[in-house]
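Reply to dn_fold:

You asked what the input looked like. This is it:
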Amino acid sequence: MYWLALALLVALTVADAVLAVVLFDLFDERLALFVNQGTAFVYILLSLAILAFRRSRQTAARRDASIALLDGEGNLVGPLAQEQKRHGQRAAPCRGAAPRPQAIAQPHTPGLVQTLLTLLGIPLVLCLAWAFLRRTPSLLAAAGALLIIGGAATSSLRSLIDPHADASAGGPVTVYSYSILIFGGAQVFAAVEKVYEESLFRACARLHPMVMFCWTLCTQFALGWMLYPLQTLPQFGNLSLAELPAVVHDGVLCTAARGGCGADHAIIFWSYCAVDFWCYYFGLWVIQHCGASLMVLASAIALPLQQLVLCSPMVGRWSESFFWGDGLALALVLVGFCVYQAFSPEGREARLANQS
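and this is what came back:
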């Protein structure tokens, strides 16, 4: 289960990133926030349905709140299930703080800068885990992390060597310094949320990731509506408040291949929903069972892999030319991950704790 979950996380992260490139090209800047709101709404419905299905299969809980009743997977049900709900609610505000600012800043942050700022999550998580979870990284773990950071950074060198190659369909990026600051701030929030989630999983060992996921999505959905008026600013869409309902309406039509949108819009949107939902969930599962540090290290492997996928003909008109740095980057991140997994105390501990 341990290796399967890590492999699924990497595969889903690669597919998620590739689909995101296509999705945000089809749904232009005007619909960027709708994509985040629309996907969050779908995920809320799906997570609630999964939790309702799980609950329907559980035995009726005993009324005595002092007695814990466990389901077949060892999860608390009945009166003591309120503990899961309480911890899930505590995680929601923190986890809901990062995605929306990142979505706003992403269109005006260069791809290379996005990559480097995202990689800051690795040292940030390691430092925060040391500061708040009292977990000092070993030298081998730090060496593995540095190799992964170096490999992922190598994959982004194409932007420096040939900044005009493989320009996106949307044309060159208009860069705003404050967008870079917002994007960087979102990475700090993302690192904090991962460590905070690990602390909550430690506090409530039987907290199911789907419970935390559901409460997080509700928070993100509420925050998204509060951030929608930012699209009235010239830098983020230059829309009027009166136009915002029409933007939401147009986005809904696009998800159904109507309103001037083709079938490709609907197919990519729903494919992205299917992949992103489980990518998000398995990220929480890895944090719960293996820790936030391993989660960010495993996710970093996806960067050179997604670049290789984007160089293949399977992505059609979004295909990029092959860059030698992608192969080197993949080799470096795999070596770094093997060092962390096979030789560091943290990697051995995670494997032993999840042998089943």
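The chain is about 70% helix and 0% strand.
Hope that clears it up.
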